[in-house]
């Protein structure tokens, strides 16, 4: 274990030339530098955030939903208990193809249409109510708004917010301030809580992708903290937080059946997303991490890794922006946001599902990006999800 730890924390990888961990271990009295051990405090904080979320959804979000006449809806049709079909549903596929349907039809001596109907009703039993999705989105919207507000207020007083070379002056001997510590640990704790809650949240088709996404986000935040790139890391987090709460607010409007407000908020989200991800991020953040840092501190191994990840992130921003632009255009032209085919449990028949796969393939790709979020409650339409800016989270 000692050898593995020494290999992982190799100074030649993590730190600039002529800097050692000893140099950062014993600062002057009253001065503290970031240490990897600080990140452990995010784990109990994540549990606390998860507990707050449960209380928030029950005592704040649900009453708000009731005021908007959003109630839990029961399933009108339940699948007839059948051990054979249930085993196929839970172990093999929830959406059997025609080969499976034909085989089950012969095995049970049922009409193919009846087998198909059973699977449709069984999927509907697992479909979350609009109330559940509203509460989940309200929690996320509230948290994103609060953390973005805190980040802006904190960074407004920081010199590196306005003059990015300050991210690298005297690096890595940059003092850890309480505000920066709280900002980082809270963001990290929230993403840990998302990893925990994924197992209790609405189950979606992109569960593995989003789990990897949250894990990658946790890794990137931890990486930048461990090698004291907190200043530029705080800018990255703030840029990615800017559009998230707008998207969740659009989903809330959708669940409450305020379609015009939903469309307006989604277009606003798209505009903010384009400005932050395609303008501010490359011109300010990538410029300082690639060029200003090169001139001030010079490259070293973890510097190359950090910038490689940020460049990959920019490529994803371009792809996501293209997909979001297509949906925003449809919202403006058709007067409504396109349906989210990616999330929750499918509720349409097999024929409808096949049609959706053919006609809405581009929309489905866009909604499959982010995480967090629900299909609609308004006239068959839905607002996209946190998977877009998750589009963030990969967005980290």
UniProtKB/TrEMBL annotation:
Residues 85-129 form the Homeobox domain. GO terms for cellular component: endoplasmic reticulum membrane; nucleus. It is a multi-pass membrane protein. Residues 373-396 have a biased composition (Polar residues). It catalyses: sphinganine + octadecanoyl-CoA = N-(octadecanoyl)-sphinganine + CoA + H(+). Pathway: Lipid metabolism; sphingolipid metabolism; Sphingolipid metabolism. This is Ceramide synthase 5. SUPFAM superfamilies: Homeodomain-like (SSF46689). The chain crosses the membrane at residues 36-56, 143-162, 182-200, 262-283, 303-329. Residues 87-130 bind DNA. GO terms for molecular function: DNA binding; sphingosine N-acyltransferase activity. Residues 343-362, 371-396 are annotated as: Disordered. It is found in: Endoplasmic reticulum membrane; Nucleus. GO terms for biological process: ceramide biosynthetic process. Keywords: DNA-binding, Endoplasmic reticulum, Homeobox, Lipid biosynthesis, Lipid metabolism, Membrane, Nucleus, Transferase, Transmembrane, Transmembrane helix. Residues 132-333 form the TLC domain. It comes from Oncorhynchus kisutch.
